[in-house]
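User: Can you model how guanosine-5'-monophosphate sits in this protein?
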Amino acid sequence: MAYDKDNIFARILRGEIPATKVYEDDHVLAFEDIAHLAPVHVLVIPKGEYVSWDDFAATGTDAEIAAYVRAIGAIARGQGVAESGYRVVSNCGPHANQEVAHLHAHIFGGRQFGGVRPRDSN
Ligand code: 5GP
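Assistant: Here's the modeled complex, given as structure tokens:
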């Protein structure tokens, strides 16, 4: 999938669309999902133009990847779910129903979740 510079998250990064930010550093932005599926539902995105996890892994810099992984942990802790538990999900590509073609990880928390099967993950 090619990167579309006008995807929703690119527009949030450019400040063209508002978002409730919960974390930001040089490489990462995190904001509340517009349609929460759990009491805690944060989207974490790299600031670079990456479509998917495999794209990011192949072409992201070590600094970007380290920042992204560290940010997800820090946000989980900052959202108060590190002890109670949380789920990190990144939908990539058609079979995963990726809606926005800019890499994002969902952090879900604040309630009990079902098993890891896709039908149970909401
Ligand atoms: P996906 O299905 O691609 O993994 O997740 C895309 C997510 O982006 C969905 O959970 C959806 O609610 C969220 N989303 C879509 N448009 C917007 C928006 O304009 N602002 C915010 N904050 N979230 C959005």
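A couple of observations from the model: The helical segments are 8-13, 53-59, 62-78. The mean pLDDT is 95.
User: Helpful, thanks.
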